[in-house]
Specification:
By secondary structure, the protein is mainly beta. The chain has helices spanning 5-21, 48-58, 223-227, 251-254, 392-405, 448-451, 464-468, 604-608; strands at residues 80-92, 95-102, 111-113, 118-125, 162-164, 197-203, 211-216, 232-237, 261-266, 287-288, 295-298, 303-310, 317-321, 326-331, 334-342, 356-358, 363-369, 379-383, 428-435, 474-485, 492-493, 502-507, 520-523, 525-526, 529-539, 544-548, 553-560, 566-573, 575-578, 586-590, 595-601, 612-618. The strands form 6 sheets. Strands 20, 21, 22, 24, 25, 27, 28 and 30 form an 8-stranded mixed sheet that branches. Strands 10-9-12-17-14-15 form a 6-stranded mixed sheet. It has a 5-stranded mixed sheet with strand order 11-19-18-13-16, with no helix packed on it. β20 and β21 (492-493) form a beta hairpin. α1 packs across α5 (392-405). The chain is globular and about 65 Å long.
């Protein structure tokens, strides 16, 4: 069939647009032309051959948990100093990088604390403002028409700290004598400029859930850039009781505590020079704690607890292990009170209904028991191939195609056939599991009775009576569409096309602003009792992981039971996937903490572009 010049021009324009978005095109090299082996910085792993080359030359090192301070930072004497600065000459998948980091490492140190502790952190910003002329095009805030009410000239070097998933105060206390805040809590509206430092004292209540949480930078406009540099780390709350939902109180799990693994999933977006100085982030393979395909060794019969933190920004992760189910016992840091047997990796490598699915921001605690290995077989933990309807990269490509073709973004409700084969997000091996040595005979998975009822006492089920007597129902609609947005209050007019129109990333027809026209105000108590409400989260274009700070929520999800049958079950979460018209209502209770915080899409490029909203809880 003769080639169509119009289609050829469209393909060229599409590739150019995707390049500007930092999205790997995944088109194969031309037939008949030998391709030189790319150097590690230029090798994005976008083809199977390139990815295999990266793994063979830069991967398959022994698994290493993230670094930890000598003592938990739970007193002034053991305060953790998190120093934000460029780290030079750090090899990431073989590429010598120049990235913004915590304490000179591509992965932040793991913070451990107990319920009732106060976490002491000093955040020190040693980054510098660019010198005049250092960058020919200084970075512009990714959310036109402005910085959403920020106090400083925009820079990727402004930072702050968010403790994702912790039920703690959103601001520090005000000193009545000075009227100032001597130390902060989980305040993501704070902006720490280059050269500044800020003390944090994050108070955990004695009944705070024990589990897997995390921390990361969260300044509106630079969150994606800083996380894609590695500015994130695990935050483990442990040492509690059954009332805290502490899994280590279950004998079968506590027995294997010393062998547990922490997996901080990273999707670093550096360019071919090893740097990130623009909002156009390069798609690269998913790393674990800065490692490419590390090796874990287990003996037959051995049980390990694996703590997963999806700290990536570019793609969802469908997890499956060759030859082994993975037994989920906690989601987003909160125990389930049961074990969910997500399926082993299918022979097809494709996503199935009984696959453990992680979106950016999710956490999952799982148990793995090594089976007797089959002779000659290799075992891998895999990120399965994603179909276009559940792939972030495919969604971004669809948005890019809509732009090139002139189709309004507001009409892009889903990715519909026909689809480009490149839109199928390729799979990737994440870990090689080597099963060797003498069998372990004294370790077992916990029984259903062992786990039954192991849910934090702080989180009883939300009842219909609480909702009936509580706050008004809340609604959130995520939208990417052409609109004309006001710089002062974020309100977006949907009358496009026309002058002043641009692609706008919105929540309820507004871009993020610290002075919104319609603030979302909730009440903490009603007649002296905590209040609850139903939340409806929908999306007008694409799909988006909904995340809210401070208070978790209950939601129903589909999961496999012990027989493999898919059933409805209730979980506590702080981040949940919102696909169009498929997310059941969320049930949220507001307890203990007043103040101002945010909800947003946890595809952080979307949040930085404006898909975030202020929330205020008043007494």
């Amino acid at each position: 069939m003769a080639s169509d010049p119009g289609l050829k021009r469209l393909r060229i324009r599409l590739i150019a647009t995707l390049s500007l978005l930092g999205v790997a095109t995944l088109y194969p090299p031309s037939a008949g032309h030998a391709q030189p082996a790319p150097n590690p910085c230029e090798n994005t792993g976008s083809t199977p051959a390139d990815l295999q080359n990266l793994i063979n030359t830069q991967g398959l090192k022994e698994f290493a948990n993230p670094p930890e301070p000598a003592a938990p930072p739970t007193s002034p004497a053991t305060r953790l100093d998190l120093v934000v600065d460029y780290a030079n000459n750090i090899a990431v998948a073989g590429c010598i990088t120049h990235l913004r980091t915590y304490n000179g490492s591509v992965i932040g140190p793991t913070i451990r604390a107990k319920p009732g502790d106060t976490i002491h952190i000093r955040l020190i910003n040693n980054l510098k403002d660019p010198k005049p002329g250092e960058f020919p095009d200084p970075p512009q805030h990714p959310a036109p028409p402005g910085h959403g009410g920020g106090a400083h000239q925009f820079s990727f070097n402004i930072t702050n700290l968010h403790t994702h998933g912790l039920h703690v105060a959103p601001q520090g206390p005000v000193d009545p004598g000075t009227g100032k805040v001597p130390f902060e809590s989980d305040n993501v509206l704070l902006e720490l400029p280059p050269g500044g430092q800020q003390d944090y004292r994050i108070q955990l209540d004695a009944d705070h859930p024990a589990g897997t949480f995390w921390y990361h930078a969260h300044v509106h406009g630079s969150t994606a850039v800083q996380l894609s540099s590695g500015m994130a780390g695990a935050l483990i709350i442990e040492g509690g009781t059954k009332d805290n939902g502490d899994l280590d109180t279950v004998p079968a799990i506590g027995k294997v505590k010393d062998s547990q693994k922490i997996f901080v999933l990273q999707q670093l977006g550096y360019d071919k020079t090893g740097q990130i100085e623009t909002f156009n982030l390069q798609a690269r393979p998913t790393l674990i704690n800065g490692q490419l395909v590390p090796v874990i060794r287990m003996r037959p019969g051995q049980v390990q607890r694996w703590r997963f933190v999806h700290a990536g920004i570019q793609e969802n992760v469908a997890l499956a292990l060759d030859g082994h189910p993975i037994h989920e016992v906690a989601a987003d840091g909160i125990t389930l009170g049961r074990s969910v047997p997500w399926a082993e990796a299918p022979a097809t490598g494709a996503l199935a209904a009984n696959t453990l699915f992680l979106l950016p921001g999710y956490r999952s605690d799982v148990l793995v028991q090594a089976r007797q290995p089959e002779p000659g077989r290799k075992y891998f933990l895999r990120k399965l191939q994603l179909t276009p309807d559940v792939s972030i990269l495919a969604q971004e490509r669809a948005f890019a195609r809509a732009r090139v073709s002139g189709r309004p973004l507001s009409t892009l409700e889903s990715i519909a056939p026909p689809v480009d084969p490149a839109d199928f997000a390729p799979g990737q091996i994440l870990v090689e599991l080597v099963i060797e040595g003498e069998p372990v005979t004294d370790q077992t998975l916990p029984t259903a009775d062992d786990l039954k009822g192991l849910i934090p006492k702080e989180l009883p089920n939300i009842t219909p009576e609480e909702i009936a007597n509580g706050n008004a129902p809340q609604s959130v609609e995520f939208k990417i569409g052409d609109a004309k947005c006001n710089a002062a209050d974020g309100a977006c007019e949907q009358t496009c096309p026309g002058p002043g129109c641009d692609s706008a990333y919105q929540v309820n027809n507004m871009q993020f602003s610290t002075t919104p026209t319609v603030p979302r105000i909730l009440k903490l108590n009603s007649n002296g009792k905590p209040t609850a409400a139903l939340w409806t989260v929908t999306t007008a274009s694409g799909f988006h992981p909904f995340h809210i700070h401070v208070n978790p929520f209950q939601v129903d999800r589909k999961e496999p039971d012990a027989t493999g049958t898919i059933v409805n079950a209730t979980v506590w979460k702080d981040t949940i996937a919102a696909f169009k018209n498929t997310l059941p209502p969320l049930r949220m209770r507001y307890t203990r903490f007043k103040g101002t915080f945010v909800l947003h899409c946890h595809i952080l490029q979307h949040e930085d572009r404006g898909m975030m909203q202020l929330v205020e809880i008043k007494d």
